[in-house]
Write a structure and sequence with these properties.
With 366 residues, this protein is α/β, with parallel strands linked by helices. Helix content is 39%, strand content 16%. It has an eleven-stranded mixed beta sheet, with helices on both faces. The longest helix has 24 residues.
């Protein structure tokens, strides 16, 4: 499925190809990134209506420079970094924010917008290179702070200490650092464990409650997560967000955990609670997980828009909707963000089922 403004046969075919590419990309990104903390922050403040934005800023990552390879499940392994002139510019992201701020007051939730509740920045790596961090990440974070919009970033943590002063200066609200285990268990999935720990040693006191750890619940390696409790305790990190693993080859529709996996997560949550650690699980199923884990549920009236660096706009109220076809293409020189977002949203209403109490699991964006 593909939903676009222009519907000529030629454009439809070209867009369908583009959507399939982005669908594969999002599936991979969701398997290896996590940022529940902003969503949890929004819910904690009683918000039940509006919009969450997710910005993908740049198709590149420093993982290979540090760990010798990219994460096995990351889509960066399937594509080459593109030149800056084929990317959205920083002003385009700022325009998107401004339109959401103004149009949200006019549209309301039934129009697909409503009040802008928060924005999360992902990279591939938002702290990497000045072309990303100085030229994109910081100006966007400053703009969000200017308008009192909660902000979050997702990072591999390799440059956390190097960028610490700037992050504190711009007062980003949430920083989720990705870890999927300790030492070799983590490095089998993403790499760079010792680099992350070194950066946490140098930054955790200054960042305080802004910090959370984000982990993926792998269906076969889920027991890797247990030892991470010691890491959270060591650095006094009080929020641990777990996201659902999505098999790149099978896609989102095949997400399924055995009971023993869910039982393990529940027991892990029980241990965490005794240490004062809050465990949040982004889980797109209705089966009960357990009383010791907070399954993050996003209000039905809240909508998510993900804007990728190539102008792809995706929307949905849960993981299934967001990655299974609600996609449009935004070219800033040809129109406003709201027009493309409205198109994707209206198509989403017609063709995607809306489930009351659906999960907020747009992991690579929110």
């Amino acid at each position: 499925m593909i939903f676009c403004i222009r519907l000529s046969n030629k454009f439809y075919i070209e867009s369908d190809t583009l959507m399939n590419r982005n669908l594969r990309y999002v599936e991979n990104e969701m398997a290896y990134t996590n940022s529940t903390s902003l969503l949890a922050h929004t819910l904690d403040n009683g918000a039940d209506d509006g919009v969450l934005l997710g910005f993908e800023l740049y198709p590149g990552c420093n993982m290979k420079e540090v760990a010798g390879r990219y994460c096995p499940g990351c889509a960066i392994t399937l594509r080459k970094e593109r030149d800056q002139d084929v990317l959205l510019e920083t002003k385009d992201y700022l325009q998107c924010i401004d339109e959401c701020l103004t149009e949200g007051k006019l549209w309301g939730s039934f129009g697909g917008f409503g009040t802008l509740q928060g924005c999360t920045l992902v990279g591939d790596e938002v702290l990497w290179r000045d072309i990303v961090f100085q030229d994109r990440t910081l100006p966007i974070l400053k703009h969000l702070k200017k308008h009192s919009i909660p902000s979050a970033i997702v990072t591999n943590g390799f440059l956390l200490h190097e960028r610490l002063h700037d992050l504190l200066d711009v007062d980003v609200d949430h920083i989720t650092v990705s870890l999927d285990g300790v030492r070799a268990d983590n490095d089998a999935l993403r790499g760079g464990y010792e680099y992350v720990i070194d950066n946490l040693v140098k930054t955790h006191r200054a960042l305080g409650k802004k910090l959370s750890i984000g982990s993926v619940v792998h269906p076969k390696r889920y027991r890797n997560l247990g030892p991470l409790l010691d890491v959270l305790k060591r650095f006094d990190i009080r929020t641990w967000t777990l996201s659902t693993f999505i098999d790149f080859k099978k896609g989102a529709q095949d997400i399924q955990y055995d009971k023993q996996v869910l039982d393990y997560i529940n027991e892990l949550g029980k241990k965490a609670r005794t240490q004062g650690i809050r465990v949040l699980f982004e889980y797109p199923k209705n089966e009960p997980v357990g009383f010791n884990v907070e399954v993050v549920r996003k209000p039905e009236s809240m909508n998510i828009y993900r804007l990728s660096h190539d102008g792809t706009v995706q929307t949905g109220t849960n993981l299934y909707e967001a990655i299974n076809g609600n996609s449009s293409q935004w070219t800033p020189s040809e129109g406003s963000f709201k027009d493309i977002a409205r198109c994707a949203y209206q198509s989403h209403l017609r063709l995607a089922p809306r489930v009351a109490g659906s999960m907020g699991v747009y992991c690579s964006a929110i």
